[in-house]
């Protein structure tokens, strides 16, 4: 038994080494070069298009799934982005430590983020000041109205006990008129507050619509650029297995999630040979948000 243990260990190690060597051989050494070439082409294509300018483009490979390209968008606000095609392949996870995609912000991005943050902060302060002013105005009118109504009730109660003299009757008449005017002022203040809320809601809806339009334009342009590059330069993916895919993952700095375009290698080949156009290649892509 003492003799067999080293032998068994050696056989096990050899088997594991053989398995590891076989697994590594499944991935063609040239595939990394193919991915680097396509990544450079994509970087150039996206950097030359202002509407679809992406940053921090990276690539990775998942055996059995294909190449994954990840990039960041400049849009940082929340957007709505949905596709109706439910038959989509599961997005390959990003092979980064901790499962998170790290953003590398250049000076231009930092400037944009800073300007957006300052604009949002100023808008929030304006909204707060406006609401606070209207709130304080309503409270002041309500306090004055309560005081006038209390004095009016006291005089009206006294009137039930004894007849008011001329001065008291005049005071009661004035309080009744004052109460009426304050009620009108309070109703007007409440109306202004409601109009202010509606105006702010309209402004938020307008900003959201603008952001959604920007996102839609970005997504449209990115998809068109991606499919066009694959159609024109798909030959650089010679080592990618025919049954795998090329995926673009667009990361957002907001809570909107990530956007995906998943394109089959077989469809890329059809586009390269002229059987379909870049627009057809994009139409065949699986697009979704996660």
From TrEMBL:
Stated name of the protein: Uncharacterized protein
Record's keyword terms, sorted: Signal
Record's compositionally biased regions (Low complexity): 188-203
Region spans: Disordered: 188-207
Organism in which the protein naturally occurs: Rheinheimera nanhaiensis E407-8
Residues in the signal sequence: 1-24
């Amino acid at each position: 038994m003492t003799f067999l243990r080293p032998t068994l260990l050696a056989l096990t190690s050899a088997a594991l080494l053989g398995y590891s060597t076989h697994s590594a051989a499944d991935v063609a050494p040239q595939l990394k070069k193919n991915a680097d070439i396509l990544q450079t082409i994509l970087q150039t294509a996206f950097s030359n298009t202002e509407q679809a300018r992406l940053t921090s483009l990276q690539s990775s490979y998942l055996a059995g799934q294909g190449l994954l390209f990840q990039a960041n968008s400049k849009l940082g606000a929340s957007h709505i982005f949905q596709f109706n095609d439910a038959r989509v392949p599961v997005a390959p996870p990003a092979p980064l430590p901790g499962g998170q995609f790290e953003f590398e912000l250049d000076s231009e991005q930092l400037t944009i983020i800073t300007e957006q943050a300052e604009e949002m902060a100023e808008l929030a302060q304006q909204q707060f000041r406006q609401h606070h002013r209207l709130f304080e105005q309503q409270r002041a009118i309500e306090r004055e109205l309560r005081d006038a109504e209390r004095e009016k009730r006291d005089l009206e109660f006294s009137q039930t006990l004894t007849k008011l003299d001329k001065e008291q009757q005049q005071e009661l008449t004035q309080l009744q008129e004052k109460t009426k005017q304050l009620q009108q002022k309070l109703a007007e203040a409440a109306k202004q507050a409601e109009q202010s809320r509606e105006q702010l809601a309209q402004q938020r809806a307008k900003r959201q619509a603008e952001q959604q339009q920007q996102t839609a334009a970005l997504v449209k342009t990115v998809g068109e650029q991606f499919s066009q590059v694959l159609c024109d330069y798909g030959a650089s993916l010679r080592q990618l297995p025919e049954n795998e895919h090329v995926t673009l993952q667009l990361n957002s700095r907001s809570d909107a999630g990530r956007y995906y375009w998943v394109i089959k290698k077989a469809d890329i080949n059809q586009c390269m040979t002229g059987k379909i156009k870049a627009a057809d290649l994009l139409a065949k892509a699986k697009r979704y948000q996660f």
